[in-house]
Structure formats: structure tokens, C-alpha cells
Amino acid sequence: MTEDPIRFDVYGKVALGATAEAVDALHAGGAYSSELAARIAIQESIRIGTPMLVGAGLSWHAAEALRSSNRPFCEVLVAQEGCSIGERARYCALHELFFAGCLDCPVCSGDFVP
Ligand SMILES: [Zn+2]
């Protein structure tokens, strides 16, 4: 049995004054089921001051593109898909990537969707 190559989730904060842009990007990106869901998530992220999910199940290329642009999202973090950025996640400094438990960084090991 082979496992599918790893995809990536991207977390970030909405850049100052970029809320409308962020709603469009989130809705278009498919991480939220509706514009309302995207708006709620944005308000919650701003209220608590924590990064929100801004892209799910992305290729490495798409994740890097989100990280390298600073609008509409800033302070962008990239994680292995399904791996929440918590204290149990491991971190690859080379790829600035959070990944899950027992395996090596999926980008270092080459088992990922480019
Ligand atoms: Zn790595």
C-alpha cells in the first residue's frame, strides 16, 4: 500500500486593510464552504489574534506562493496537510514547515506534491 504524496495547509493572518481581498481569496480558494464562513473565520482570527486556515490541501508550489506574497495574508505558516500547528508538530527550519510526528519533513524526504 502506498500513501499519497503530502499536501499542505497554509495558515495566516489577514493583512491590515485587506479584509475584503481576504474574503474573496478564501472563498475562491475553497478552504471555506461559503463567503459567510470565510468572514466568520476572519473575524475570529482578528479577535483572538491567531493565524487562520487560509488554504487547505495545496501543492508545495501553491503554499510557497501564498507565503511569499504578503497580501491579503501575512505571518503565513505552512504545515503538512491535517497537521495542526501545535506543540506536537515538528518543524523543518530548512523548509519552514510544520509536520506531523514520526516521519521526517515531507519536503526533505521528497514525498510531497510539488
Ligand atoms: Zn525539510
Strand order of the largest sheet: 2-1-3-5-4
Over all CA atoms, what is the radius of gyration?
14 Å
Low-confidence stretches: none
Number of strands: 5
Helix content: 25-40%
Distance between the termini: 21 Å
Question: Could you tell me which ligands this complex binds, including any ions or cofactors?
Answer: zinc ion
Q: Main sheet, how many strands, which sense, barrel? A: 5 strands, mixed
Mean pLDDT: 90
Q: How many distinct domains?
A: 1
Strand content: 15-25%
The arrangement of helices and strands along the chain is: EHHEHEEE
With helices defined by DSSP (H or I, 4 residues minimum), what is the helix count? 3
Report on the architecture of this protein.
The chain is α+β, with helices and mostly antiparallel strands. The chain has one domain (8-99). The chain has 3 helices and 5 strands, in the order βααβαβββ. Strand 4 and strand 5 form a beta hairpin. Helix 1 packs across helix 2. The longest helix has 14 residues, at 35-48. It is globular and about 40 Å long. 30% of the residues are buried. The structure holds zinc ion. Zinc ion (ZN) binds next to loops.
